[in-house]
Amino acid sequence: MVTAPMLQTGIDVNLPQAKAQTIPDDEGKLILTVTKDKRVFLGKLQIPFDDVENVLKNNAKLNADKELYLHADRSLLYGDVVKVMAAVKQAGVDKLGMVTDPLE
Question: pTM here?
Answer without folding.
Answer: 0.78
